[in-house]
Structure formats: structure tokens, C-alpha cells
């Protein structure tokens, strides 16, 4: 017998006497469940160690109720990742530039009236075809659809908060790199409309972050670009606030911007045009808006001194005080400025500027409002003084343009 065959025989004999060292032990059903639970716990602990802790598992008699409410809320809003790695992955997967281009399609059943336009927008973004003018067109289309679907009689109430259009455009600006350059602010119609959507959708916190950032840049670097960005963002943001039914947010925003300018040691005249726009909407265009509370109106009016605004703007605001309107400043203004208007109109060349100068438009509106207020207070003689002044200006305008003066537009 060979040596190899001898070893095989010895090995077989030992194997028959000693059981295998790694032979699995038989487990009962209870032991199997315990092992499974232990493996699950160990696996979850390892995941938590790598990705951060996960929410505590539901337990107790309230678990079924919590699960029910959680499932209901999940239908209303998408899951929000909490772990750092999940947040990073979520941002990558939701980048609009990385979305696969697919043919826009309408979902079956009853959907949002904005779905098709939003799908077309995302299609254009995914193909790299989106531009500022096209994004403006998209917002206009959504705005018109929302305007058509509203039942409100208010000229300014348009339900934009449920459209999601502002968020889509904001995501595109971020993904395309235009978010931090602020180049989009050069298109006033687009930027005001975008900011209007963002305010309605509760995204105005991002605008305050932009304002803080550009003001710090303008304060520290003091370049022409940062100064222009700061000016435009302030003006367009406040303009968007004047497109709502009430001016409460417009007043509070102007007051807050003034505080930010002082904090960053920037000139307050950056706020001048925005302040005048709100003043115009508070007076000439007041019929569109609900009255603001005195607690916001008075601090706003008081800013006119620091901002060095014209006397006629302050006089007009006094006539629209929510609880104590006054025509005293208007009377003072017309007594002092009569000769100025004659000089102004004598220099007006309708061939070069066919429309009435905005400054004169505003003063005409002030005179009419002041005369109405004085008439209602039985101060007829003082009302006639202002009416005589307005009539003289109107006659001179008709001589210059042959009868047409155009409509009133915001004068800033």
C-alpha cells in the first residue's frame, strides 16, 4: 500500500470518530429570531455610525397613529433627507441640469394647470436651452394662468403661492451659475416677476441673504459691480412687494433695508427710488391696496427726511395717513412752488419728451387730493387756492401739447 493511500485511510478513520469542527449547530425558531434581531440591530448601528443617527423607531400604542399621520404627510410633501451623505446625494439627483430629457407629457386624471408648462421648462433646462428671456416667458405664462384661475376681484391678487414656478427658476439660476453673479438683475421685468413669485412661495428669505451678501461686498470691496447689484436688488425686491394687495410687507422691507444699509455703512440714497415707489403706491395708486397700520406707516414717512426725498412726496403721504390725514404740508408746498412750476413748464419741450414730466404728474395728483380733502373739511377758500394753481398748470400744459397730457405713471 502506498504512503498516500495510507494517509487517506487514517483520515477517514479520524473523521468517523470526530465530528466536523465547523458543523452548524441546530437552532430553534426562537433562537433564529433572536439571531435575526441581533443582526438587524448590528446593521443599523453600523449605518448610524457611518451616516449619522436615524429617527427613533416607533413604539408603544401611539405607533399606529403616528404611522398613519406620517403616511398622510408624506403624500403632501416629499421626504427630506437628514444625513449629510443623503443631503449631498439628494442635491445631485435633483440638479435640474442633470435631469434626463424626456418628452413632456400630461399626467392622466385631474392635475395642476401649471404641470405642462413646468415640464416644458424642465425639458429646456435639461437640454441646456434655458435663457433669462425664456425663463421670463415661462413665469409670464404661469402668471397668466394663475390670473385666469383666480376668483378675486382685486387687481393685484394673483394666487402664485401654489405654482412652484419661482422655485424652479431659482433652482435653474443656482445650477447654471447665474445665482451668485446677479447678472439676471439687469433684466428688470424678469427679476421683479421672479421676486414676486419667490415672495408668494415663501422664498423671500433667500432674497434677504442676497441683500446681506451684496451689501457686505459693496461695503468691503466697493466696486461698481457690487454697488449696482445692491441698488438693483433693493429696487426690484421692493417693487415686487408693491404688487400685492397690502403694503405692509413693502413698508417693513423698506425699514429693514434702511437698517441694513446703516449697518454696512452704505449711503441711504440707494433706497431712495424704492422708497418713492412705495410712496407712489401709498398715494396715487392707493386704490389698489389696503391701508397699512400706523405703526409701519409713520416710520416709513419719517424716513423721507434722512432719504432727502422731495417735499411733495411727504405732503402727499400726509393726506393718506391711516387715521389722521392732513393737508397742511400740501398747502405750504403749493404756496412755495407755484413759480417753480411755471419755470419747469417753460423749459418743457414736447417734441423731445411728448409725455408730461413725471414730477408734474405727481404734483397734479397731490393738488387734486389736497383740494378734495379741504373741500370735505369745509375749507373751501384754501381748496380754491390749490385748484387755481392746478388750473394754471393744466392750462399751460394744454397750450404746450395741444390738449393731451398722458396718463399718470410712477414718478421716482
TrEMBL record:
Positions with biased composition (Basic and acidic residues): 76-87
Domain of life of the organism encoding this protein: Eukaryota
Biased composition annotated in UniProt, kind: Low complexity: 63-75
Region (Disordered): 1-87
Stated name of the protein: NWD NACHT-NTPase N-terminal domain-containing protein
Organism listed in the record: Podospora comata
Amino acid at each position: 500500500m502506498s504512503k498516500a493511500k495510507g494517509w487517506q485511510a487514517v483520515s477517514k478513520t479520524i473523521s468517523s470518530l470526530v465530528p466536523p469542527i465547523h458543523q452548524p449547530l441546530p437552532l430553534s425558531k426562537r433562537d433564529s429570531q433572536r439571531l435575526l434581531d441581533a443582526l438587524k440591530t448590528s446593521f443599523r448601528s453600523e449605518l448610524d455610525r457611518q451616516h449619522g443617527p436615524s429617527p427613533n423607531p416607533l413604539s408603544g400604542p401611539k405607533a399606529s397613529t403616528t404611522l398613519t399621520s406620517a403616511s398622510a404627510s408624506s403624500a403632501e410633501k416629499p421626504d427630506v433627507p437628514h444625513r449629510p451623505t443623503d443631503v449631498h446625494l439628494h442635491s445631485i439627483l435633483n440638479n435640474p441640469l442633470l435631469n434626463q430629457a424626456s418628452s413632456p407629457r400630461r399626467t392622466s386624471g385631474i392635475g395642476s394647470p401649471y404641470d405642462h408648462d413646468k415640464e416644458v421648462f424642465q425639458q429646456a433646462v435639461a437640454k441646456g436651452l434655458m435663457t433669462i428671456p425664456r425663463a421670463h416667458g415661462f413665469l409670464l405664462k404661469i402668471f397668466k394662468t394663475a390670473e385666469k384661475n383666480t376668483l378675486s376681484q382685486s387687481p393685484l391678487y394673483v394666487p402664485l403661492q401654489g405654482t412652484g414656478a419661482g422655485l424652479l427658476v431659482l433652482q435653474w439660476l443656482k445650477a447654471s451659475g447665474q445665482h451668485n453673479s446677479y447678472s439676471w438683475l439687469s433684466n428688470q421685468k424678469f427679476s421683479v416677476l421672479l421676486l414676486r413669485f419667490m415672495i408668494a412661495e415663501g422664498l423671500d428669505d433667500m432674497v434677504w441673504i442676497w441683500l446681506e451678501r451684496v451689501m457686505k461686498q459693496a461695503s468691503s470691496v466697493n466696486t461698481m459691480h457690487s454697488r449696482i447689484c445692491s441698488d438693483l436688488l433693493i429696487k426690484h425686491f421692493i417693487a415686487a412687494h408693491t404688487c400685492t394687495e397690502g403694503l405692509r410687507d413693502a413698508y417693513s422691507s423698506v425699514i429693514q433695508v434702511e437698517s441694513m444699509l446703516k449697518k454696512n455703512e452704505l449711503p441711504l440714497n440707494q433706497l431712495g427710488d424704492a422708497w418713492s415707489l412705495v410712496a407712489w403706491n401709498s398715494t396715487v395708486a392707493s386704490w389698489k391696496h389696503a391701508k397699512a397700520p400706523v405703526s409701519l406707516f409713520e416710520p416709513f414717512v419719517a424716513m423721507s427726511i434722512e432719504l432727502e426725498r422731495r417735499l411733495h412726496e411727504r405732503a402727499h403721504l400726509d393726506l393718506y395717513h391711516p387715521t389722521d390725514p392732513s393737508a397742511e404740508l400740501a398747502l405750504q408746498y403749493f404756496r412755495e412752488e407755484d413759480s417753480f412750476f411755471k419755470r419747469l413748464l417753460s423749459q418743457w419741450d414736447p417734441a423731445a419728451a411728448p409725455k408730461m414730466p413725471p414730477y408734474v404728474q405727481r404734483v397734479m395728483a397731490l393738488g387734486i387730493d389736497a383740494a378734495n380733502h379741504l373741500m370735505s373739511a369745509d375749507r373751501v377758500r384754501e381748496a380754491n387756492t390749490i385748484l387755481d394753481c392746478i388750473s394754471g398748470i393744466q392750462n399751460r400744459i394744454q397750450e404746450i401739447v395741444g390738449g393731451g397730457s398722458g396718463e399718470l405713471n410712477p414718478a421716482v
